[in-house]
Amino acid sequence: MANEYDVSEIITTFLLNTCRLLPRLTKHDVQAAARCATIITKHPLNEEETEYIPLTTGSVAEFYIEPMLPHVGDVDVMYYFNSVLAIPRGHPPPTQLPAEFHNYVKVHEIIDSHLPGYVYLPLRYLLTRSTGESKYNYIKFDADKGRYYANRSSNSYGKLTHGPALLAVYSDSQLSVDSVRCARCLSWPQQAADWPTRHRNYGWPDSATLDQIVSNGCDLVGVAHRQCRQHKWIGKNQHRLSFSRAEIVLINSWMPVQQIAYHLLRYFIKTERLTDCADNSAAGTLSNYHIETLMLWACEQKSRSWWTDDLDLVRICVELLHTLSVWLTNTRCPHYFISNCNLLDNSFNVGNVASKLRAIDEEYLSSWLVDNYIGQCAKLCPVHISGLFNDVSTTTKLLNVISKIVRWRVNASLDDMLCAIDFAEGRISAVLSFHSLTAPSCVCWLNKLTNIDKRLTFYFSAAALLYVACKILRNGFSDELMDILATVLGHNVDKSCSDLSLRETEMNTSELVELLQKSAVERLTTYRQLVARDFGSVVKMVTTDFEALYAYKRGNYQRCLQLSIRNVRTLLYAGRITEIQVKPIFTQLLDDDIVSLSALAMIICWTCRSRDHAGIYRITQPTLSLYLMTQCRLKLRHSVSSMARIPRYINVARNRHSRDSTLDYLTLKLTERKIEMLQSARVAEIYLARYLNTVGLL
């Protein structure tokens, strides 16, 4: 095909051009934000009003590149109780804590076990913060009267587990979520005391990064060493030191070439099946954490020029795989933070992995990456591009295919982001429809979405206002709902007065709900305008769909009709159009017939065991506009002739836009039926009038 050097150079150029480097909205980020927000919600059995504090970890938090092939296997979230704290052994109890901590805090001491990196957490102190003060007082716990250890007996609430994690498995395009409960330690652990000060030849990480990491402390995860998991007491009480916070900072400080190399190594090891899933046996297996450790040591021990001079990702990966081979041969994988901790031992099932890695050279890896990486990327492209990959026997042909893949990748960027935005709308509306919302979870949502994509904060704030309106209709106004409003509106909302005139004593329930709905529609309209501005080149959308809905709900049928006619003309023959979420919190804006159809669609979906549940919670803009246009003309008692074109419009909408949505199909059928009933009624009126005229009654 080409000589070795040429192919490796082509591969390097391809990876640099296809691994996006700029921050972008992704489905993984949205799913992680949703999980963090739901974790924050108070536990239903928690009477002390303590809270979970979440942190997105793992690949979602570590990678800032976005390769064409999957680089995120699942969404990892760690969380800790704000009423539990760990401190290094011998440290005095803290007298001040960050504001997120509870007024009553149990302090556990970190005690070494017989295995490096694994510890026990006996209870040592009980902290109490006086009302109105920031300082904590403490009571020492008498360990002689009973040794209370932090354990993970409450970590699994009857759910699937994956190691120390609670595993939530989702359908559709969502990844599984690993939620790991931990204990927070605000100090850098003694077990890794020499890490910040050890000698580094090439200045990575720099002093500012070291200071940041040390100040973040660490966490302790409730999982025993694999050799101790069957032990009755140790298996329950042993914890592992977690440096996830440090790893996020370090990996995000890598150069793009280092992140790409990390991705390639993980992809190669996984594709070649050199790792196995964790099980309950005592045997260890090679994992992504070993690859991460390999990369961390390489970034520290190799100069910047080793990575960047004559940049060749194939060469870099081959040398790193050879280093891993040496580690496996010597059964020695040094923990990056804890100097006396080995991540490998004789129980590991490495088999012939070491010899296989040692035999890899640049020619082999180049050929492998062309066939198994670039080839898989080609399959993501349209047929006229992917078909070209059947013949890459020369450098010219390979370069031709790669140039087309890269061009397609660039052109598909907006389309990918739009899919992520649609996913975000679905997740936000689903979480607020089927889960509780609190002021702290609102803060989490808004902070996360601001970092992901500021446009989504308008959508979330609108959904939150509709959530509050829905709760008021069911249970009346409450202090908890007031706190949510204060968070969403960005200022303190006094019970007696605010700039939105939320006066509990002067405004009845219906007026308050109307005000919230109006404010939500204004935010949704702003959101539509922002999305249409940035994505109008890849999708046809109107920005007045929610305004038309609200006008119909308020009985302003003439205004709704004007907007709906305009929207139908804009959307009917468009290629790609936008959908509207109709999950429970949005039903308060909808016509009763649409709400009933949504319930019917749900029954049909479950009866038929359909996997496309999304189709019962969405309706396209053309379908909704046609329905509203018909309803308004009925309400305004327009003539039958004014409805003459609507059946043809319905056929167009059905054929072009509504094939995959159950609710769309039912709504269009209902609209047709309403027109038919009107026509039948008007014909009956004509015949009745003629008859009455004949018999002289008119």
Task: Explain what the structure shows.
By secondary structure, the protein is an alpha+beta fold. It has three domains: 4-369, no CATH class; 413-539, no CATH class; 544-698, no CATH class. Helices cover 50% and strands 10% of the residues. It contains 25 helices and 13 strands. The protein has helices spanning 4-18, 27-40, 58-62, 207-216, 234-237, 244-252, 256-271, 288-301, 304-308, 313-330, 353-358, 362-379, 383-386, 395-411, 413-434, 439-452, 455-475, 479-489, 509-535, 545-553, 557-571, 592-607, 621-635, 646-656, 662-694, and strands spanning 52-57, 75-88, 104-112, 118-120, 123-129, 136-140, 161-162, 165-168, 177-185, 218-221, 239-242, 579-581, 618-620. The strands form two sheets. It has a six-stranded mixed β-barrel. Helix 7 (256-271) packs antiparallel against helix 8 (288-301). It is flat and about 110 Å long. It starts with a helix and ends with a helix. The model is unreliable at 154-162, 277-282, 491-499 and 501-505 (pLDDT under 50).
List key phrases describing it:
single chain; 698 residues; alpha+beta; six-stranded mixed β-barrel; two-stranded antiparallel ribbon; 25 helices; 13 strands; flat
Tell me the major beta sheet: 6 strands, mixed, barrel
The total domain count is 3
Strand proportion, as a percent range, falls in: 5-15%
Extract low-pLDDT stretches: 154-162, 277-282, 491-499, 501-505
For the terminal residues, how far apart are their CA atoms?
Answer: 93 Å
If helices are DSSP runs of H or I spanning 4 or more residues, what is the number of helices?
25
